[in-house]
Amino acid sequence: MTALAKLGHWRLAITSCFAGLMLVSGAAAADGFRGQVVAVDDGAAVESVMVTLTFGAGVAGPHAVTVFTDDEGGFAFPDDVPLVGKAVSIAAKKLTYVPLELTGDALHVALQKDDGFRLFLQPTGNIASQVPASAWLGVTPAGDARNITVTSCSSCHQLASGRMREYAAQIEAVRGGPEGDKVALEAWRKLVRHEAWRTIVKYMRSMHYSVFPLESKMSIAAIDWATAQNEGLNFFNGDQGEKVAQFLADHFPHTTDYLEKGRYEYGAPLGVTAATVIREYSFPDDALVRELVATPNTDFLWGADVKRNFIVRLDPASGENKWYPVDFKGSTGPHTIVSDDKGEIWVSMVDNDQFGHFDPKSEKWRLWTLRPANLPNADSMAGAAIVHDMSIDSKGRLSRDRFGKIWLTIVGTNQMGTLDPETGEVAFYDTNHIEGLSAINHLLYSTVISPDGACAWYSQVNGSVGCINTETKKIDKLIAFPEGTGPRRMMSDGHNALYVALFGSGQVARIDMERAKVTRTYDLPDRTSAPYAVTWDETRKVIWVANANSDAIDRLDPETGEVKVYPLPRHMAYLRKIDIDQKGRLVATYGNYPEGSGPSMGVLINVGD
User: Fold this and answer.
1) pLDDT one-digit tens code per residue, 503-532
2) Which residues lie below 8 Å from residue 590, measured CB to CB, with a gap of 6+?
C-alpha cells in the first residue's frame, strides 16, 4: 500500500469511528468537567457547540445540563453539576455538523482515560435532521397566507412537526392517478394534496378539545364530531382553515429528507458564551406543564399542569417536584400561572370557569368563578368561558388597576373580566368585534395594565390590540393588525412602551401606549419562529422572545434592533412564556400539545453574560 493510500485508509477509518460515536476522553477536572470539541476533517476547534450531559432517574438536580464551547473549542461544566460518572450520555451538536452522542459502557470506559477529553464532530452538507420545525416553513413563500398558516396551526404544536413531515411524504406516495399523462397527473396530484391537507384542518379542529383535561366534560374523548367541527367554536374560522389547506397543498415541502447546508441559518449572531448554562428538569410524560415562573426571595419555580389539574413546585437544586391539586370538585385545567410581589401564586384555568390564588406558605387555595351570563349551559366550547391570561406588570407579575382589580381575558366570549379579590366582585366587558369572526375565533389572549393603572391592554391573536379604560370600562384605544399577524403575549417596559409578540409574522411590535401607535416593528431573524411571548428584562434592558417553532430564544435590544439567538438543546422546544428569577436566570418550560408529543421539561438558563 502506498503512503498516500495508507493516509487515505487511516483518515477513512478515523472518520468512520467518529461518525459512529467514538470519543477520546479524560477524567473530570476537580473544578468541573472539562473538555474540547474539534472537527474531524482538520482538527480545528469548533466554537459554540452545545455539549449536554444527561443523567438518569434518581440523580439529584437537573435531568440534563448543557454548556457551550468557547473560541478554542473548550467547554466546562459548572461545579454544581452532578458527578459526570453518573451521566447516562454525553452529546454534542452544532448546525452543519453530524450530532454526536455517547452512551452506556462506552461512555463510562471513556471517562476513565487520562489523555484529555475531546469530542470530534463530522461536518455535513445535509442539515435536515438538525434544523427546527420553522426551517421547513422558511423555504415557503412569505406573505399573508403563510402568516395565517402559522397563526392557525402553531398554537398547540410546532409547524412543521415531524408528524406533519411524515404525512406530507405519505401524500406524495399516493398512487392511482393518470400515469403517463404528465399534465393530468400533476393536476390530479394537486387535488390529492389539497384534499389531504383539508383532512388535516378537520383533524386540527377536533384537536382544539385536547386543551382540556382528560376528565373534562369537554375533553376530546367526550365531544362528538359535529361539535368538534363547528367553525364558530374554534380558534380559526372556515375561511382561515381553507387558506391553511391551500397554502400547505401548494407549498409544503414534498420531502424533508434533505436540506442543503445554508438553506437554514439562525439569521443573527449567537448570544451564547462559554458561561451559558442550560439546565433541564424532567416532568412526567403525561404532564403538560405549559408555563413555569419564578417567585421573589426564593429559588423555587412554579408551573401549571393543564392536563392533570395540578400546579407544581420545582426545586432546581434537587430537581424535586411537589404537586398540588386544585381544591375544586371537578376538572380545572390550570393554564396561566403568575407570581405576585409577595411570592404568592395566581392561576387561571380553562375548565369550569375557575381562577385561583395559592399561598405557598399555608398551601391553601382561594377560588373564584368567572362565568359571563351570556354563556349557554353546554358541554362544549359553546359553554366555556376559558379564563385565560391575567393582568401583569413589567416584571411579569400580577398587576391590578388603580381600583385594586385584576383583569382577565375570557376567550369563550371575547370579553375582559375583572375580579376584586377582596370582595369577590366579578364583572365582564366587551372587547372589539371583527366581522366574520365568532367570539372564540378572535382568540383573545394577553392583558397588561398600563403603569398608571388607567388602561387594561388586551391582544387578540386573530384581531387587534386594544385598551379598555379601567374607570369607564369602555374601549379607549384600538390598533388594528393585518390578518395573520397574530398579536399574542405582551409586556410593558414599566414606562410607555408596550411590546407585543407577533406570532404569525415573526416580529415584535413596540406600541406607544399614550398615543396608541406602533412606533417600531422588529423583524426576528427567523420569520417563521412563531414568537409566542415577550419578556422585558429591566436589568439588561432587553426583550426576551419565547419562540414556539424555532427551538431557540431571541434576545432583542429595542434601542438598536440587534438580535442574538440562544439555541435550545432539543427539538420540540416549544416555549409559551419566559420568566426571570431573582438571579437573572431565564425560566421556561416546553409546552407541547397534546401531552407526550414533545419533551416534558422545565428549563432554567444562566445566560452567561
Assistant:
1) 999 999 999 999 999 999 999 999 999 999
2) 572, 573, 574, 575, 598, 599, 600, 601, 603
Residue with cell 353546554: 378
**Residues in Cβ contact with 169 at an 8 Å cutoff, skipping those fewer than 6 apart:** 254, 255, 256
**Best CA proximity match to 87, nearest among 67, 71, 65, 69:** 65
Cell representation of residue 236: 380559526
Beta-bridged to residue 355, according to DSSP, are 348, 368
Give the rounded distance of the alpha carbon of 454 from its chain centre: 31
Please tell me whether residues 115 and 153 are part of one structural domain.
Answer: no
pTM of the model: 0.93
The parent domain of residue 206 ranges over 134-251
H or E element that contains 218: none
Statement to judge: residues 89 and 208 lie in one domain: no
Same domain (yes/no): 148, 117? no
- What pLDDT is stored for residue 30 in this prediction? 36
Beta bridge partners of 475: 468
Q: Is 239 strand, coil or helix? A: helix
* CA atoms of 502 and 111, how far apart (whole Å): 47
Contacts of 98 (CB under 8 A, 6+ apart): 19, 121, 122, 123, 124
Domain shared by 392 and 510, yes or no: yes
Q: What is the dihedral of CA 429, 430, 431, 434, to 10 degrees?
A: 170
Query: What are the φ and ψ backbone dihedral angles of 179, each rounded to 5 degrees?
Result: -60, 140
Single-letter amino acid, residue 280: E
Q: Is residue 571 part of a domain?
A: no
Q: Is 606 exposed, middle or buried (0-12, 13-18, 19+ CB in 10 A)?
A: middle
Domain for residue 319, yes or no? Answer: no
- In a domain? residue 429: yes
| Domain end point (choices 121, 144, 174) | 121
What confidence tens digit (pLDDT) does each residue in 298-309 have? 999 999 999 999
What is the total count of domains within the chain?
A: 3
CA gap 589, 548 in Å, rounded: 11
Last residue of a domain, one of 482, 498, 523: 523
How crowded is residue 19: how many other Cβ atoms within 10 Å of its Cβ? 15
Partnered with residue 416 across adjacent β-strands are: 409, 429
Q: What is the 3-state secondary structure (H, E, C) of 344-367?
A: CEEEEECCCCEEEEEECCCCEEEE
